[in-house]
Specification:
The chain has 381 residues and is of the alpha+beta class. 30% of the residues lie in helices and 26% in strands.
Amino acid sequence: MSEALRLTEALIACPSVTPDEAGSIALLQQRLAAAGFACERLDAGEGAERVANLWAVHEGARPGPMIILAGHVDVVPPGPRERWQSDPFVPTHRDGRLYGRGAADMKTAVACMTVAAEAFVAAQPAHAGSVALLFTSNEEGSSSDGSAHAVQVLRARGLRPLAALVGEPTSVERVGDMVKNGRRGTLSARLVVRGIQGHVAYPQFARNPIHQVAPALAELAATVWDEGNEHFLPTSFQVSNIHGGTGVGNVIPGEVVVDCNFRFSTESTAASLHQRFEALLQRHGLEYTVEWQLGGEPFLTRPGSLCDALVAAVEAEFGLRPVLSTTGGTSDGRFLATWCEQVMEFGVRNASAHQVDEWVDVDAIEPLARVYQRTLQALLA
């Protein structure tokens, strides 16, 4: 059994439902300290919401850049255990796959990054620059006390990394077919539209906010916010939740609450989306309040040293040239992109992420670790 597979299994066995690290961060810290990394905990939060953040650095003997390998050990809840063919926190092999919560997203990548960093510094103890690893237990949750907090602390110290590689599951049909060189921004809104509560038999004495907001939502859904560009898909708008009514059938509600989200390209800004969204609501004559939450700005890493090193490593290990993409959801790359000049993401297939019976291809694990090691070699040897 390879060291990367063994560590992946050990991490899956930690029931680290966000934000609980459940022993996984402690395990990684122990390993990296034994390999000569200076380890520091940058934890944040209190009580059951406390978030574990591990910062581990190996300084080389020659001048050079800082390269970060980053990932998260936390996972989403497994859901109904009876729907799993095997216990989600007992690593299980079937038909060439390793099953368990976090196998795809993203304990395999964290294990491979750790093994790759250990192997690189063992082979190149006098490397240039510094190898750093940043692991958090709060990416799947609010993220506020995870990588965002760690980046804030480290940036205040004056550290300026050249590049960060995040281990998100980016591959689609085959491991190695896609890497992420950016992500869209995410902007959420909670819209409260106020009406007048009343009896459904006497609508003349009430004002139904659901009826009022429906045409506005239809127009929001049909609006072309931008056309995107060569790197990004067009900005999209989606409603995720609508809450209205008292639970009985004869009362017109007094308000309706709508949760919605923009995933936006660099052709739009949070400010421009605010303005257009509210102008549309006002045009529909709604009485409303809206609370905004900017989850992250869009970012893009153009071809350069990190891109060249990563693409070459993927080609060498998996035999195909990956597509550069900015599709998909958000990741901790959005926080690292405010600090590092270059940020990219690469990991295993994403088909089973967050699903029941989450899995990873076992034969991809060792090559993935070698991709990360080759990337470090190209940038720091």
